[in-house]
């Protein structure tokens, strides 16, 4: 670009208020953009990490969520005998039959009708190995035959009586909280885990809802799936665990993403209008200078590029400020009800470097769109009229 | 008001700037009103619920059903006039992409319990008579083009298998918040296929005196507290409010974004107003020499800001009001999505605040402008 | 061949609904090394003449040739490049970009050439020296007096060693002392450096400084014989 950039930089500082307001407007749009996408991405990420590509989740044929599934007790031993299941270090198959229920837990400080649907998962001790990334950070595994539970780490602080050592009451029974676990930020961290038999006593009779197992051969999913489909003794569908949970995030995730784009799209139109105003005013007040540049022999396209660059720089500045404004939200934990599973999922806002880059890119686009017509007017300045 | 032509002429001087700024205000208020309407719609459901109807759920988990024997025992509770029940079916239609609620109901008592669901008498009788009949909301007619007499097959997820129904009736809700996209069929149709599993999902009761609700709730919950199916009883209103809370921090999210939107537009409008003033110092000086007082000059700038903000507000709020009517936005998840008078009022206040905030500094500058200094700038 | 040849040039333009004829079949030559003042009442077309020579405007009919090149037939793109190489232009006011220093303003035309940074710096320093402002290189226009601003503008006009220097009312905004500085400089550029100068002015003293004075009245040329100012 032939016209020295220092010209644009200094001109911008000559009108600090106008520049500042425009940049700030763009900053707000980018901040909302980054924050909302961080929300959507955080939710999706929590669900995507829940499943492992090496695991298979079996549900009753036709069920689209763990909640609506039902696998009879007799089917468990048939499933456990499958050759597709990997073996643990103790020689036993890595298979986890589970009970799944959604409890009404009251939110602290609200009335009894303000409830959250919290997942209560009945497990056997194999679950700790089959389900990936489960790490007990406080306490110990619950003992068999006891009214004991473990809670996911995200429940602490959001519900009452969920700390290790507390007693939580549901299903007309008192349960001792004996451990707290993390699961790599996944949806498991919003769940209450207890022994299958104990939970079945309270809610479900004696059917299970899901069976999760580790594939013996990670590449052998299709084979395993076909085998289970063909088995006449049981009526199950096999899902790759990672895909299943990712799909559970699809509807709400897409809604959140759409909202982010819709809202910031409209906001950005307003911000672009602001940039257009500012740049037109700049071109207007600098008409004599533009005339000089054109007279000196700078091409109109150099003038166009110069003003476009000026607008772009203001916008990118705004974009960076916007990213900085949104950054603190990273890691903030919030929750929502995932309608696909009808359960509450707590997750953290997730601001990634890619998202920040996207935000700045968005700002750049706003700057270029906003600056284009004013820059074009500058480049088309009828010099002699300007000199009159 | 005789100064309005003067103000308008000033705004016309930079027509594009005025148009763009007004459009920005319109966009912002459109967004603001739409966001706020999400919250009001969610709350609205709770507000229209009846205080004479009560719901009984399993207190452990909503998804655990209650024994059928409870029906008789509920009827015998003082103040309870009638009892009915329903189950969530949760099936899939076609590829399942378009969600709609499906319920198995005790047909006669349920329709009596909800007079808000209006069905033509002949259709109602046809529905009651046939076990595999279905009653659908008029919204489903719009969405899927179904009509009376059509056969519809749903895939069960909680209750596996293919379930075929014949549509015998279409209902129209007199209370819009109840939604018009529900699919209802006979409880017995569900029961006969899974007699071992199916019992009522929840009970609905009509009470003769709304004030008796707390007493009724206590009686019922106390009675079943230590059984295998403990209950949670409350008015329909209370439950509706609780359901709205499942949306989590939506309210907080919407208000935060709403504020960001308004603030961003304030910046745009303020910028435009300041640009206007910067270019007019000599004219302001001339006006003062002609005899306009400082205060009058101040007022003119404020009026200018007001014209932009209020025009933008009318356009933006108007668009927000029309949007759901024209596009049917909201549909399944947010029945009766509309802009309330309260939102319009708040929008108006926002526009006024915008006027003041964007206009006050340039107005003050214009009022304070020393004439002599400004005239020197006049070439 | 004269440096600037204006042949049968007619120029008219529309104002509102009327057509205004500025010239009809104008013929003038400007020799290389000449220093001409163009005078005349407002509306006589003297500024338009400068604009035609610089390629900023096109005649309605006729041709304008500068150093053999037909300016009136060039495309806007060609004109931009041509102007950069051939013309140095000084306006009455608003010559300098207020956000650039004197040095940076003078350097501007050189950015359109292929000179290296070092060469550009040398030439810029030289030009500023010639106009007597070697010590003000890093000042901003607002820190300079009117006369100094005009001299910086002249430095910019000569820095790329153009064929022709065009000035439109260079002393119009200046007091007598500053005018004097500018005029002495112009005279020197013409005498010592043999620069061809065309200057539009209504200042009698500026006209006296020039070697030839042309009067334009209603698009018609009335020449007054060139008077060599002694000294």
Summarize this structure as a short list of keywords or feature phrases.
heterotrimer; B: 379 residues; alpha+beta; 10-stranded mixed beta sheet; 14 helices; C: 231 residues; alpha/beta; Rossmann fold; 6-stranded mixed beta sheet; 4-stranded antiparallel beta sheet; 32% helix; disordered C terminus
Average pLDDT rating of chain C: 85
Mean pLDDT of chain A: 90
| H and E order of chain C | EEEHEEHEHHHEHEHEE
Give the H and E element order of chain A.
Answer: HHEHEEHEEEEEHEHEHHHHEEHH
The total of beta strands of chain C comes to: 10
Tally of domains of chain A: 2
Low-confidence stretches of chain C: 227-231
Helix content of chain C: 25-40%
Oligomeric assembly: heterotrimer
Structural category of chain C:
alpha/beta
Task: Summarize the structure in words.
The complex is a heterotrimer of chains A (388), B (379) and C (231). By secondary structure, chain A is α+β, with helices and mostly antiparallel strands. Chain A is built from twelve helices and twelve strands. Chain A folds into two domains: 5-48 and 250-387, no CATH class; 55-217, no CATH class. With 379 residues, chain B is an alpha+beta fold. Chain B has two domains: 4-46 and 248-376, no CATH class; 60-229, no CATH class. Chain B is 55% helix and 16% strand. In chain B, helix 2 (15-48) packs antiparallel against helix 13 and helix 10 runs parallel beside helix 13 (341-368). The longest helix of chain B has 34 residues, at 15-48. The two termini of chain B are 32 Å apart. By secondary structure, chain C is α/β, with parallel strands linked by helices. Chain C has helices at residues 46-53, 76-86, 102-107, 117-130, 146-159, 176-191, 204-209, and strands at 4-15, 18-30, 35-39, 61-66, 69-70, 87-90, 164-168, 196-200, 212-217, 220-224. Chain C is globular, with a radius of gyration of 17 Å. Chains in contact: A-B, A-C. The interface between A and B is large, with 58 and 57 residues.
